Structures are given as C-alpha cells and as structure tokens.
C-alpha cells in the first residue's frame, strides 16, 4: 500500500546544478501536484496536473519544469538550482470521481528535503 | 485565487472541544472549503471538506457560515496527538488548484 512515493528524501545541490525530484503514485489518481514548504511557512503550489499530458502552473512556477507522460508519475525538474530553492518539496495526488469532480482529498508524500549551496 | 485568513496560533486543553476559525470573504460560488493538518516533520493530511452544508466525519466537523465567507473546524475532544498546524484551503472548483495559507498552529495542553 505505497500511496505517494517521493525520491530522493534528501538532496544537496550546488548552485547551478539541475536535478529531478521524482513522484509516483499507485492509486490511479488523475490529479497530481507539487508544493514547496519553506521553514516555518505554509505550502505553495508550484505546478499541477489533471491528467496525463496536461500540466499547469501554480503560485510559484519559475525555475521548475514538470511533465506528465503517465498517470502514475509526475517529476519536478529544477533547471538551474538556486539557494532560494532550498525547501521541502511535497507531491500530492487526488482521485477524480466518475461524475468528473474530485473527491476533495489530497494524498501527500513524505516530502523531499532539498538544500542548495 | 481566493485567500483564507486564520489565526497564527491557538491553545486548547486536552479533552476539550476546539473551534478553529477561518475567514474567506472573497470565496466564489465554485470554491470548496478544505481543511488539512500537518504534524511535525510530516506531509499534510486531509481532515474534512465541504461546499455549503455543514459536514461531519470521524475526525472533525466543519461548520460553514450561511454566506460562506467563514467556516469553523471543530475538534470535539482535543488530544495531544491533535497538536499540529491546521490549514484552511479553498479549492477552485474549476481549476482544481489547492492554495494553502499559513495555517493555525494548535497547541494542546495536558
């Protein structure tokens, strides 16, 4: 019963490096999203997707790319890491009901802690 | 995107009810009201959600004002395990964007 799996759990990067945070869910959820949480702050939406091949920007999309080639996976790419991207990143998913609306419950992964030096 | 306003922190005694308020004066007709909580060093977990009517589940109750400009999450008997940051969120029914605010940190006193 894996749910939402994020890898890696911890990562240290140097400024200018690129990397991909992986997110996979085994619940056949149509909706997936990425958030970042800075110390002592709430979560801010980076990008989200309502299905394979469909992505859209959230509140803070600059510096990040996403793609959704399968229902299960929603990777987040940091193009050129900056110290301001030091944060904890959460992936979340939700299921669409047969009526087309969403159940309203987001399932979160355990988070990926990224430090950019 | 409509925003929510919550008190930064609240305290409650164990075994007593807790009422966590949320203001969302710019809510639109298609926005759902969600509550999540985040325990230390964990991802947020779903608590409850509603659109217009009051809602109950095993974790909590959600009371929504008639004009929908505010709501209250009710924990009927607070336990030490309920100490967390509680987020009131509006979900845009059209775009399905979940926008978190800064939340209320609930401290439960033994």
Structural features, described:
The complex is a heterodimer of chains A (117) and B (110). With 117 residues, chain A is mostly beta strands. Chain A is built from no helices and 11 strands. In chain A, the strands form 2 sheets. In chain A, strands 2, 4, 5, 6, 9, 10 and 11 form a 7-stranded mixed beta sheet that branches. In chain A, strands 1-3-8-7 form a 4-stranded antiparallel beta sheet, with no helix packed on it. Chain A is globular. The relative contact order of chain A is 0.32. The mean pLDDT of chain A is 92. Chain B is an all-beta fold. In chain B, the strands form 2 sheets. In chain B, strands 1, 3, 4, 8, 9 and 10 form a 6-stranded mixed beta sheet that branches. In chain B, 37% of the residues are buried.
Outline of chain B, from the CA principal axes?
globular
Mean pLDDT score of chain A? 92
Helix fraction of chain A?
under 10%
Strand-residue fraction of chain A?
A: over 45%
**What low-confidence regions of chain A span 5 or more consecutive residues with pLDDT below 50?**
none
Tally of DSSP β-strands of chain B: 10
SSE blueprint and pairings:
The complex is a heterodimer of chains A (117) and B (110).
Chain A: E1 4-7, E2 10-13, E3 19-25, E4 31-37, E5 43-51, E6 54-57, E7 64-66, E8 76-78, E9 87-94, E10 107-108, E11 112-116
Parallel strand pairs in A: 2-11
Antiparallel strand pairs in A: 1-3, 3-8, 4-5, 4-9, 5-6, 7-8, 9-10, 9-11
Chain B: E1 9-13, E2 18-23, E3 31-38, E4 45-50, E5 55-56, E6 61-64, E7 70-75, E8 84-92, E9 98-99, E10 104-109
Parallel strand pairs in B: 1-10
Antiparallel strand pairs in B: 2-7, 3-4, 3-8, 5-6, 6-7, 8-9, 8-10
């Amino acid at each position: 019963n894996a749910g939402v799996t994020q890898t890696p759990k911890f990562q240290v990067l140097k400024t200018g490096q690129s990397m991909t945070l992986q997110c996979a869910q085994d619940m056949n959820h149509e909706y997936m999203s990425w958030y970042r949480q800075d110390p002592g702050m709430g979560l801010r939406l980076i990008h989200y997707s309502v299905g394979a091949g469909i992505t859209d920007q959230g509140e803070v999309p600059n510096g990040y790319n996403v793609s959704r080639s399968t229902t299960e996976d929603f990777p987040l790419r940091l193009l050129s890491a900056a110290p301001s991207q030091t944060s904890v990143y959460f992936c979340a998913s939700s299921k669409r009901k047969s009526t087309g609306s969403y159940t309203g419950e987001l399932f979160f992964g355990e988070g990926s802690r990224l430090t950019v030096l | 995107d409509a925003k929510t306003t919550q008190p930064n922190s609240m305290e409650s005694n164990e075994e007593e009810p807790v009422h966590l308020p949320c203001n969302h004066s710019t809510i639109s007709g298609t926005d759902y009201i969600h509550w999540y909580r985040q325990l230390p060093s964990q991802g947020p977990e779903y608590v409850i959600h509603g659109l217009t009517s009051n809602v109950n589940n095993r974790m909590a109750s959600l009371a929504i004002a008639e004009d929908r400009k505010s709501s209250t999450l009710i924990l009927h008997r607070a336990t030490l395990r309920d100490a967390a940051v509680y987020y009131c969120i509006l979900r845009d029914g059209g775009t399905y964007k979940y926008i978190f605010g800064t939340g209320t940190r609930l401290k439960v006193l033994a």
